[in-house]
């Protein structure tokens, strides 16, 4: 207990230190914010994988839906931006409802079925131009307001928002994991049949994890859209919201809670600050190579290797 | 109106033939090793770019690039196999992510080597129109359709008659039993990857001959191949052909009767429909699905 | 030893004299460009034009020089913002570049927050010029392409057209504007949108051939779309009098890569090929481009060059007036009235409303400008199709 409290305090100190020390350097702050967006999706992706037992290749679906719902509700219905973030999450959950039939599919089928949904959403966003602005997308999306004297649309402000979002999500993740739902889910992961025999409604639990993961990704998508200010179908449902979070989560260790976010920060920052300057045209290749190497040699990711914690995992 | 629909059916069938060639490699590997090679589309694309290099470098018909494509693509397929076989835990999902990463590497490598410009064959012979009644096509299309059918027939014969072919099917059915029977499962898995490479080579040259290639195509091809594999059901070669033809015709009809903006939508919806309604695909044996 | 000291002394003297002159008047300009990712090809083309502008400006201005610092935005909005901020921290006074409204929007937003001007030729979304920014400028827009297409159709005096267009932002936008214009003139217009992923255009072209039976086919897409449509048309041979496209079509590259598909095809083009220039500046541009890149300039290079020259000249004027630190560059840009390779450029709310593109046609192994008449280098070969 004491160790985790110290860990939390240390993390909070580091998080606050970043804007204090680097807040004037817009470029670095931009990188942090972008990395944290990826981290958010990575976290949601890992949650679905660990607690729900489902690997998804289509989280861009939730990201895009969250972005569109938040953008449209703040632009058309005058909803305040912060509420828009929540609405984005809710919108993503509603979108995940149509994915429920796919829950009973196994591993790879589920992963690619979600990808199919992402493609479908993108086409819908492109065709339903009366609502979504079609392929031209939306521009002039409202930015974050001033609250408590801080300009939240500024770099440090936006950083604080996404950081807060992520910290809340991490707490939720921890809470779910520790709760009896979490125990049931982890048991289910080991053997779905055994748990069903004991009376656990595995389908309902899986559905709830899908909702949680969708909600988180939707909120992150909404955050991103207000930070950037522009949206179009290609961007909202882009493959990069699938690839980078997976690489980040695997690299950081998708079995752990902190792994995905730390992985995202490391991968993104190293890629932009180091690789990009070394190999301007090919550094995305390095990311692919990183993924391959990680899966083969350390599928649990880098974080567990670095911090050999005493935690014992029952599952492989 | 009938002319429109007839042409749509014809174009769709020809297109489906080459889809089948693209999908077959993925389906075979999936059937025998339970691994979905998400970099399969990139293998096909690699073959297409090799065809381009041969055509522009030596000035010959791209069909002559097939030997070079076979060598390079099969070697790549073997490398992929060895990487996949190094995955120890959680094989199904980890190999999925692994091949995803391989796909990213290949796509970027292709981008670096050949640049993002679009390429296609400049051979007039391949592009000349062949007119049969009210039906039009480029010469390369029916040509590669026949190649496709021949290859599939050959593969089906090989799987059912030759020793190695039957070994592949045995391993697909029950790995441990096959091993007890004296079959080396690892070697048969390697063989299926190599065959996938052969099929990908032909598919790649075909695509270059009648279509336009660019580095981003790899991912698109993989998705198409997977959709067709699911449509076909596991373990059925004729199923792949039927599934591919179905997809090709569905796309062409959608474009003709509705809007061409919906072509991609058709594939996705067909895919999901099959998953819900016929989880075993059109022809598959009952596989563990839920 | 004495010799060494003499050498060092001379060197120091030379350096101090030299540095005084150079450092004082060199201006850093930022270039935020997609050099990798989906828009890589376009970004590289623009980059070449901008580099040529640097060459030409530094040689001809005499008093001031510019240096361009380039950042790759990887075709991504978040990285475009980061690129702008990184360059700003390195001391640039303005930005040139950008492609894709979705990237230019956030990037120019960031530039505006920093008070730095941003000039581009890659953003057609009208939302970009409706933000009321005093720092955003663009030298082209959809209207210019539309006027060219409609203009050449006027000359052809056709009654009906079929528009085959990609559902991407810029192409759909242009196609819809063209449709509105043509229907207002009383023409029959058939619209055929297609998903950017399509590779077999035979079903669409067949629809045009059997149903629309139009006089001309208008293609609004990118290189791979043009190739697909033209291929399908060559096979199906619809009874049309002309095949007309927009950007990236009337280029030497297309003629070289696909010689059997290009004859008599129309596309927007600023310059004929082989390039001939009526002005001194045009010649300087061409020579510098050839020297740097050993190939003929294309439309991307031309746009990159024009926008950058306008910017550099504005910087020079502001430097002379001493207003650089007080927003002078943006003021000078707003006051621009220049005759350039793309015609007269003036900015109204940041938009160059004078912009009208030219139409070129592949004729033999050349590309001739066929519209408007006052820029034409040859008559159009009409009716005419590649088959």
Task: Provide tags for this entry.
heterotrimer; A: 316 residues; mainly alpha; two-stranded antiparallel sheet; disordered C terminus; C: 387 residues; alpha/beta; Rossmann fold; 5-stranded parallel beta sheet; 4-stranded parallel beta sheet; 12 helices; 14 strands; 18% strand
Produce a short descriptive summary.
The complex is a heterotrimer of chains A (316), B (290) and C (387). Chain B has twelve helices and two strands; from the N terminus they run αααααββααααααα.
Strand content of chain A: under 5%
Give the number of helices of chain A: 15
Secondary-structure element string of chain A: HHHHHHEEEHHHHEHHHHH
N/C terminus separation of chain A: 25 Å
The largest β sheet of chain A comes out as:
2 strands, antiparallel
Count of separate DSSP helical elements of chain C:
12
C-alpha-based Rg of chain C, rounded: 23 Å
Q: What is the top-level CATH class of the largest domain in chain C?
A: Alpha Beta
User: Biggest sheet of chain A, strands in spatial order?
Assistant: 1-4
Order of the strands making up the biggest sheet of chain C: 2-1-3-4-5
Structure write-up:
The complex is a heterotrimer of chains A (316), B (290) and C (387). Chain A is an all-alpha fold. Chain A has a domain at 29-238. In chain A, 73% of the residues lie in helices and 3% in strands. The radius of gyration of chain A is 19 Å and the shape is globular. The relative contact order of chain A is 0.17. Chain B is mainly α. Chain B has a single domain (2-277), classed as ABC transporter involved in vitamin B12 uptake, BtuC. Chain B is 74% helix and 3% strand. Chain B has a two-stranded antiparallel sheet with strand order 1-2. In chain B, β1 and β2 (135-138) form a beta hairpin. The longest helix of chain B has 32 residues, at 2-33. Chain B starts with a helix and ends in a 13-residue tail after the last helix. In chain B, 58% of the residues are buried. Chain C is an alpha/beta fold and 387 residues long. Chain C has two domains: 2-141 and 279-346, Response regulator (Rossmann fold), CATH 3.40.50; 143-274 and 358-375, 3-Layer(aba) Sandwich (Rossmann fold). Chain C is 46% helix and 18% strand. In chain C, α2 packs across α10, α2 (40-61) packs across α11 and α7 crosses α8. Chains in contact: A-B, A-C, B-C. The A-B interface holds A 55, 57, 101-102, 104-109, 111-113, 115-117, 119-120, 123, 126-127, 239, 243, 246-247, 250, 281-282, 284-285, 287-292, 295-296, 299, 316 and B 36, 83, 86-90, 92-94, 96-98, 100-105, 108-109, 112, 219, 223, 226-227, 230, 261-262, 264-265, 268-269, 271-272, 275-276, 279, 288-290.
